[in-house]
Amino acid sequence: MRLSSPLAALATLAAAALPAAYAQIAMASGMTADSYCNSGGQFCVTGVYVPSAQAVNYTVVVQKAGNTPYGWTGVGVGSGMAGANMVIGWVNGPGSATISHRSASGEVMPTEARVATNNLPAFTANSQTTTTAEYSVYSWLFPASSAPSGTVSHIYGYAGSNKAPSSSDSGATLRQHDTYGYFSLDMSKAYDGTAPAGLPNVAATTPSSTDSNGSSSGSAGYGQRNRDLSQMTTVVYLVHMIFMVVGLIVIAPLGILVARYGRTLFKWFPTHAGLQLFVVVLVIVGFALSVHNVMAQDKDSFSLLHHQLGLAIFILVIFQALMGALSHIIVRRTGFRYLGYFHALTGVVIFGLAVWNAHEGFELWTWQPPAYASYIIYAWAGVVALIYVIGFMFLPRERRQHKEWLANRNGGGSNQSLTHEKTPPHVA
Ligand SMILES: *[C@@H]1O[C@H](CO)[C@@H](O)[C@H](O)[C@H]1NC(C)=O
Ligand SMILES: *[C@@H]1O[C@H](CO)[C@@H](O)[C@H](O)[C@H]1NC(C)=O
User: Fold this and answer.
1) CA 155, CA 157: separation in Å to the nearest integer?
2) 135: pLDDT confidence band, cut at 50, 70 and 90?
């Protein structure tokens, strides 16, 4: 439940003044419980089986280090991301927190849509979900007709405040976790009446579970790193990445620069067209590979930004190739160049989108490329942009040459001097 601000402020005060009253869960017979805190103590999870509610009552408490809330925190019942029954919480404003019931088909962004696909029963968000100056609490019930017997496997993940979802919409896009791991709760232990672990001013239960991969700060990625090249999916994504980076990030801007400088310096059109045609082939194959993998894995995952941007880029690339060819024909026949200017603009836009999408792809990829992979691409894009902008210095000369060429052409001069020739021939 989301509280409006004055109410939330009151709730905050009440929580600070009466932590025990806020935190405790009424004791009853048949209750079992266990809790887990990560080794840094930044977040704790408590599960209490409540027979009267026929549910496990989960409470996640996230401390706000230096008043900076985690971007999001997720806990799931399961031993890996695929099919785990997850709840993800984040703060969306003063006193207001969102919790979202999610699932994933694999090591991809968990979505609300997957919950139904994975046949997970609906969860119930508790009104105790809130955020104060010291901590955030995410609380919910997962239905359970009887007390879970013994050890229950869980996964967790969290991301820094720079990755906070931008809205209070429970379906908001999540950016990849910074840290993840596994823990288990021994739900055969009787509940002793203590407050959920991690809440201040009350005796928290000591973490009793083993922190199997815990406090793995800095290890990023959706689930475990996967670089197993004996798996077809891994090979296909690797080839997809290579084709797209070589095509859109390396060759396409070279083709753009050939066009930018070539107009005034050398015979440019055959080189430009040849390079960009090669890019089109790489993009078509790279796109087909990724579609194949995504379809095989999860048909719903088109909600991911990388896939949406990728489709947009694919369509733009095809459109761009046709426009380039058409513009070339029109310039040859009529001397009309404005379509060419538009083509140049679209080319720059496509390159920018490709740089963005390369980063999005690296974030999703279970290969878990190092963060500097994106930085190398940004640096390269910066160099390309600089060289491109310097190329505008040739614009006046280009205009002059084009006028001369037009005059020459209209005067019945040699029609050798077309756009694919250096124009005029005396410029070496
Ligand atoms: C669930 O846990 C919260 C503590 O986070 C508690 O306040 C609430 O009363 C509990 N609900 C049920 C149904 O046990
Ligand atoms: C992490 O935990 C899982 C499940 O408990 C285990 O299979 C895996 O070997 C652990 N990995 C490391 C690096 O400890």
Assistant:
1) 7
2) confident
Probe residue for ligand 1, chosen from 128, 140, 199 as the CB with the greatest number of ligand atoms within 8 Å: 128
What's the confidence (pLDDT) of residue 377?
97
Helix, strand, or coil (residue 334): helix
Give distance in angstroms: CA of 214 to centre of ligand 2.
9
Q: Which residues approach ligand 2 with their CB closer than 6 A?
A: 182, 212-213
From the CA of 213, how far away is ligand 2's center (Å)? 6
* Residue 182 Cα to ligand 2 middle (Å): 7
CATH 1.20.120.1770 placement within the chain: 232-410
pLDDT digits (tens, 9 = 90+) for 96-134: 889 999 999 888 889 988 888 888 888 999 888 888 777
Cβ-Cβ contacts under 8 Å for 46 (sequence gap 6 or more): 33, 34, 35, 36, 58, 59, 60, 61, 196, 197, 198, 205
CATH of segment(s) 5-186? 2.60.40.1210
232-410 belongs to CATH 3.30.420.40: no
31 CA from centroid of ligand 2 (Å) = 30
| pLDDT of residue 313 exceeding 80 | yes
pTM of the entire structure? 0.50
Straight-line distance from the first to the last Cα atom of the chain, in angstroms, rounded to the nearest whole number? 72
Residue 151: nearest ligand to its CA?
2
For residue 323, is pLDDT > 90? yes
pLDDT tens per residue, range 372-407? 899 999 999 999 999 999 998 888 888 888 888 778
CATH 2.60.40.1210 domain range(s) in the chain:
5-186
Task: Output 402-405 pairs: Cβ under 8 A, ≥24 positions apart.
Answer: 402/335, 402/337, 405/335
Question: Which mutation among 87, 126, 132, 194 tests ligand 1's pocket best, with the greatest number of atoms within 8 A of CB?
Answer: 126
